[in-house]
């Protein structure tokens, strides 16, 4: 029956990881993986997560409700919108536990496909590769909007605004809440305000992908600025949240879809429909990761400890940005590397050409994505000198 099924290509990111694993050179460096690493190059269990994990009580293996752990959902909603959000006060929000950020995007896409008047979704060029795949599977029509300007290695703000203006009215616009993946380029707060003006004029609907809150700057409110600003401006929106990075819970698949609607009745109706989408997709979510997060978010002292963990991670990334930048410059870089300091979050969009990337890998055993994206977490005090040399060599 399935004799004619064609072999699909491997996932680009996982393919780089496999090539890294197969390399036997001791100097090899993995800058492709989208996960935090310590200065020793190892994964990090957040101390607050480890502490809570040891105290989880009454754990049986009963089903969670379709929409997940209610304490978790309330905590995640507050995290995205801010506890004092007008939308929460007016009881016009709902939040549903999801299979991490990817699961939230998938259910959000299906919801939009089923219920929104427009099937058009605007997606930045470039964006996280999975966005396009997810939206395509939900039968949405993807329309790219300009975002990254190669000449400045920064934001193409005029291009973005022009494309939002030119798009059909009532389109959904996918916005990276902070730490844009793969570019590390975010609008300023003033630019967010202008984006909101255009989106309001056009009746566009914001779909936020929030995968790096707190992980980017260490400050949870700063990293949620765009979401909270849009809600203050009276927008309805969907927010896809991931606990992979900011809680280090990558394989626990803890995420959330928080929705802001215009009325309490709409919030109740949307919740009921989201539950139907979940029920027919995977019935109900897993417990463990969400239980850890629920404990942390509902306890003031643990919350503070977690913020310290966030500062540890974001602080190390910022320090690696500075140190790698300085080392490349000190070794006689022939081009400007200030974008390494300006871009934010886990990734630097280096501007390295595919040929330079190829040389880094084949000659220097440095593994990164073909588009030149590097994960700053792969940089550490042991490999930084070697890496800076390699980058200077291939860009001479
Ligand atoms: N959105 C973006 C922009 C991401 O970078 C990621 C993680 N790579 C995700 C969503 C989803 O990750 P997860 O499913 O692990 O939460």
From TrEMBL:
Which Gene Ontology terms cover its molecular function?
Answer: L-aspartate:2-oxoglutarate aminotransferase activity; pyridoxal phosphate binding
Q: What InterPro entries does this protein map onto?
A: Aminotransferase_I/II_large, Asp_trans, NHTrfase_class1_PyrdxlP-BS, PyrdxlP-dep_Trfase, PyrdxlP-dep_Trfase_major, PyrdxlP-dep_Trfase_small
Which superkingdom does the taxonomy of this entry point to? Eukaryota
Q: Which GO terms describe its biological process?
A: amino acid metabolic process
Q: Which cofactor does it need?
A: pyridoxal 5'-phosphate
Swiss-Prot/TrEMBL keywords: Aminotransferase, Pyridoxal phosphate, Transferase
Stated EC number for the protein is: 2.6.1.1
Concerning Pfam families, the annotation shows: Aminotran_1_2
Every Aminotransferase class I/classII large domain range? 27-391
Q: Which reaction does it catalyse?
A: L-aspartate + 2-oxoglutarate = oxaloacetate + L-glutamate
Signal sequence, start to end:
none
- Family named by the database record: Belongs to the class-I pyridoxal-phosphate-dependent aminotransferase family.
What else is on record for this protein? In eukaryotes there are cytoplasmic, mitochondrial and chloroplastic isozymes.
Which NCBIfam families does the annotation name?
PRK09257.1
Oligomeric state and partners? Homodimer.
This protein is called what?
Aspartate aminotransferase
């Amino acid at each position: 029956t399935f004799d004619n099924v064609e072999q699909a290509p491997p996932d680009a990111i996982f393919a780089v990881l496999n090539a890294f694993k197969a390399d036997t050179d001791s100097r090899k460096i993995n800058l492709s993986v989208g996960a935090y690493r310590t200065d020793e190059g190892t994964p990090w269990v957040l101390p607050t997560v480890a502490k809570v994990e040891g105290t989880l009580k009454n754990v049986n293996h009963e089903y969670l409700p379709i929409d997940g752990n209610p304490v978790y959902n309330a905590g995640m909603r507050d995290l995205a919108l801010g506890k004092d959000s007008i939308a929460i006060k007016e009881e016009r929000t709902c939040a549903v536990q999801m299979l991490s950020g990817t699961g939230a995007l998938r259910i959000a896409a299906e919801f939009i496909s089923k219920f929104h008047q427009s099937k058009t979704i605007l997606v930045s060029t470039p964006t996280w590769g999975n966005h396009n795949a997810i939206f395509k599977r939900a039968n949405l029509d993807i329309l790219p909007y300009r975002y990254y300007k190669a000449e400045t290695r920064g934001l193409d703000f005029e291009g973005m605004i022009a494309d939002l203006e030119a798009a059909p009215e009532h389109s959904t616009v996918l916005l990276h809440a902070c730490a844009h993946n793969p570019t590390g380029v975010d609008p300023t707060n003033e630019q967010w305000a202008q984006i909101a003006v255009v989106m309001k004029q056009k009746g566009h609907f914001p779909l936020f992908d929030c995968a790096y809150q707190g992980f980017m700057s260490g400050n949870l409110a700063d990293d949620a600025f765009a979401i909270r600003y849009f809600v203050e401006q009276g927008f309805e929106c969907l927010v896809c949240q991931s606990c992979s990075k900011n809680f280090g819970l990558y394989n626990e698949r803890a995420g959330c879809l928080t929705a802001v609607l215009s009325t309490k009745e709409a919030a109740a109706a949307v919740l009921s429909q989201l539950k139907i989408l979940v029920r027919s997709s995977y019935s109900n979510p897993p417990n463990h990761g969400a239980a850890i997060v629920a404990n942390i978010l509902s306890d003031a002292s643990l919350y503070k400890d977690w913020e310290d963990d966030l500062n540890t991670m974001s602080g190390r990334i910022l320090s690696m940005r500075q140190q790698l930048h300085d080392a490349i410059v000190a070794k006689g870089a022939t081009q400007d590397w200030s974008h390494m300091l300006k871009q934010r979050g886990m990734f630097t969009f280096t501007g390295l050409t595919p040929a330079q990337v190829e040389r880094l890998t084949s000659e220097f055993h440095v593994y990164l994505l073909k588009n030149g994206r590097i994960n700053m977490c792969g940089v550490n005090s042991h490999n930084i000198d070697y890496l800076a040399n390699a980058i200077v060599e291939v860009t001479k």
